[in-house]
């Protein structure tokens, strides 16, 4: 059992505090924060004066449990992680503001999940029968504003997924389910643009607001091949190296029909994780970086970067950021963007010698350029060795490199009037995208 539960804001202030057994001092959160600030403890699990501290950090918030007993750390970590998911399901957005505005609802959830330090129930669906407080809407435009949606058959704002369960049920009057196919790319390239390493760690995430417990049939690509399942790969096949599924998935029809059958739990969960360990074909590279380092004089160097978007022009990269460092010995740095470069900015941090290039919207099939000139303190033949690699981060909405697709999503329900809304989208973003100079 656990002795105390805290939910702490990023600045350390206490938002929620429950003392279940009176065994640990109320200053336990201060002890925890002091260890974090002083960086004497970097592990999420540590012990001070006989008190065990176990923490999960989510969106800058600290979900902390203390105990004087030898509890299972993995169990408490899982419990705290599930608490973050339940809070997000019930209040819509997990942030300091939303927790403070809904602290009564959060306390009600915590009281149902834990009793005298013992875990009782941490399921979003099962808690609905015992939770009666209504969530308060958050007015933060960056995250929590609840927009008014027009009744359109095909589109809905991506912020819709952040509405709390009860507001959704009462305000929209309809059942909805959201499915996201997300690709996270890790890749390294040499100075000639050749791929050295490449992998995709992806997932299918689902957020269900369906009434009752209907059965779902989710069909993936017919050409899907998973290593070790006996089917040989070939031209046009979608190859995955490893997959794992949520416990609610029935796999009877998966091998033959690529069909996932499930009764989804309420709220947000990961339906499927998948991994691709190597580059299958060159078309999987979304961006290519071509660096050219050349001397202008004995004491001046120029780095020219050319970034080419390899995907079709109907897609675009959003929030694209390119970063690189110039030699520590350099003094001064000037950057030039290409003429007519719209929606692009750059900044230079002299302390870390880092250049950051921001591109708000990078349309597919186009090329963007940047030139960086810097002065070294002496004639240096090892400038290339002193320069750090070029890193890139980006998001490409409605595009996935793995080509894994949801072909159709069928909700089996005997009642013909039961017509829920289905929203399916995909996203590719960079986990680690690095090019060596």
How does this structure look, described?
The protein is an alpha+beta fold. It has three domains: 4-127, Beta-Lactamase (2-Layer Sandwich); 176-282 and 399-435, Sandwich (Immunoglobulin-like); 287-397, Immunoglobulin-like. It has helices at residues 28-38, 73-91, 96-101, 103-113, 124-127, 165-172, 254-257, 383-386; strands at 4-8, 14-19, 45-48, 51-58, 61-67, 114-115, 118-119, 176-189, 195-209, 215-220, 224-226, 238-240, 242-245, 249-250, 259-262, 267-276, 287-297, 300-309, 316-325, 331-337, 344-349, 354-363, 367-375, 390-397, 406-412, 421-435. The protein has a nine-stranded mixed beta sheet. The radius of gyration is 25 Å and the shape is globular. The chain starts with a strand and ends with a strand.
Instruction: Give the CATH H-level superfamily of the largest domain.
Output: Mu homology domain, subdomain B
What is the end-to-end distance?
53 Å
Largest beta sheet: strand ordering: 13-16-9-8-26-24-19-22-21
Instruction: Enter the CATH topology name of the largest domain.
Output: Immunoglobulin-like
Describe the protein's topology.
Blueprint lengths: L3 E5 L5 E6 L8 H11 L6 E4 L2 E8 L2 E7 L5 H19 L4 H6 L1 H11 E2 L2 E2 L4 H4 L37 H8 L3 E14 L5 E15 L5 E6 L3 E3 L11 E3 L1 E4 L3 E2 L3 H4 L1 E4 L4 E10 L10 E11 L2 E10 L6 E10 L5 E7 L6 E6 L4 E10 L3 E9 L7 H4 L3 E8 L8 E7 L8 E15 L2
Helix pairs in contact: 2-4
